[in-house]
Amino acid sequence: MPQNTQDYPFDPAQHHVWRPYTQMKTTPAGLPVASAEGVRIKLEDGRELIDGVSSWWTVCHGYRHPHIIDAVKAQLDEVPHVMLGGLTHAPAERLAARLAALTPGDLNHVFFCESGSVSVEIAMKIAMQSWINRGVSGRTQFLAFKGGYHGDTLATMSVCDPEEGMHALFAGGLQRQIIAELPVDDEATEALDTLMTKHGASLAGVVTEPLVQGAGGMRFHSPETLKRLRALCDKHGLPLILDEIMTGFGRLGTMFACEKAGVVPDIMTVSKALTGGTLPLAAAIASSRLFNDFWSDDAGAALMHGPTYMGNPAACAAANASLDLFETEPRLEQVAQIEDAFARLLPHARGVSGVVDVRWQGAIGVIEMRGLPDLDGLKACFVDSGVWVRPFGNIIYLMPPFIITADDLERLIRSTVDVTRSWAERHF
Ligand SMILES: *Cc1c(COP(=O)(O)O)cnc(C)c1O
């Protein structure tokens, strides 16, 4: 083992920050950001990029919306952080009550944490422990779906698509779950029904993303598919966990995607746009029926979880301010306008060589390619044309902040299609 840093083939001082999903040896360094405002990211070298990613789908009101910034500043002056064990505070109490009112059905009980992955883990834990608390043993597995993505932690990787979730790479290190096809038609529904009967006694719950599988490939499915899944969960007595981390807070044109199908989950997970992309916060929101399974004189029946920074007051203040903006500014109308612009402009990508599908819903626009060779080269071309677009897998997608103006949106979509075309001509 090398003893001195000069024995390594890299300079440690150049790589203190270990970056996400990044081969540090071959990937160009991150672009230094000086500031951001509205839909624009300003780089230290003076260039400005129109953001087509909303910083991993969080910044729904644009960067530095004054209402959120003011709310966070005021909260920092009162109490930036305090533990939620034994103490409580107005921002968390208010946010939980608002989320309970906003979410459908009897999703009334909000368990806070700091990241989406952890909220999914908590949802899985609630489902598992609810069986234990009811005196039913052996229900420790989850049913999840091909193409799904629920996070990068070990338990959430086990309910991701087997390939995307790196099941093979970490084989033996992940809990073995049941991974099925979504019930997209009668045949698939019957097959899923059979599978649920077969594994019935070992299943604790079912996990899926409603209406669009995001990081697994931006694949849409119909409200009917989600309804069939709800019906199967009811038939087999299984809690349905809907992961609304990407779709929650308007991305598909309703506050939550499940509303489009009239489906109420037993647990919903939210994060990403919860604070308008201001501070990290997530939550697992459970039904009163599940909460009731933990309501007992027995301390051992308590939900055994408690992230250190859960319900951070500054983050809750940002989330409350973000919810204010959904009430006072026309966010869902803006999403409908973004959808219209996709419908008008994105089809220009059809017929470009290498393009296999062009699709959109709400404020999600997708160009699916046969492949994306030289991905770093393509990313650089987007930056050169003044847009921040981050393709992955075979997918070039746009998820802009909802407040984007018609002009900026047109520029973003046109640049994306033009760059894709000229890049594809060189590669296909
Ligand atoms: C991003 C995402 C997660 C993981 O959230 P993190 O905050 O990155 O842990 C889980 N589920 C879905 C649907 C997501 O889009």
Describe the structure.
This protein starts with 32 loop residues before the first strand and ends with a helix. The mean pLDDT is 97. It has helices at residues 54-57, 66-78, 90-102, 116-133, 154-158, 186-199, 223-236, 258-261, 288-292, 313-328, 331-345, 375-384, 406-427; strands at residues 33-37, 40-43, 48-51, 107-113, 141-145, 178-180, 203-208, 212-213, 219-220, 240-243, 267-270, 282-287, 355-361, 364-369, 387-388, 395-398. The chain is built from 13 helices and 16 strands. The longest helix has 22 residues, at 406-427. With 428 residues, the protein is an alpha/beta fold. The chain has a seven-stranded mixed sheet with strand order 4-12-11-10-7-5-6, sandwiched between helices. A four-stranded mixed sheet has the order 1-2-3-15. Helix 11 (331-345) runs parallel beside helix 13 (406-427). The chain has two domains: 5-61 and 330-427, Aspartate Aminotransferase, domain 1, CATH 3.90.1150; 66-328, 3-Layer(aba) Sandwich (Aspartate Aminotransferase, domain 2). 36% of the residues lie in helices and 17% in strands. The chain is globular and about 65 Å long. Strand 10, helix 8 (258-261) and strand 11 form a beta-alpha-beta unit. Bound molecules: pyridoxal-5'-phosphate. Pyridoxal-5'-phosphate (PLP) binds at residues 115-117, 120, 149-151, 209, 214-215, 243, 245-246, 271-272.
- What string gives the helices and strands in order? EEEHHHEHEHEHEEEHEHEEHHHEEHEEH
Task: Give the strand line-up of the largest sheet.
Answer: 4-12-11-10-7-5-6
Count of helical segments? 13
Give the overall shape.
globular
Strand content: 15-25%
Largest sheet, described in full? 7 strands, mixed
Distance between the termini: 44 Å
Q: Would you report the number of β strands?
A: 16
Q: How many individual domains?
A: 2
| Helix content bin | 25-40%
Bound molecules: pyridoxal-5'-phosphate
Low-confidence stretches: none
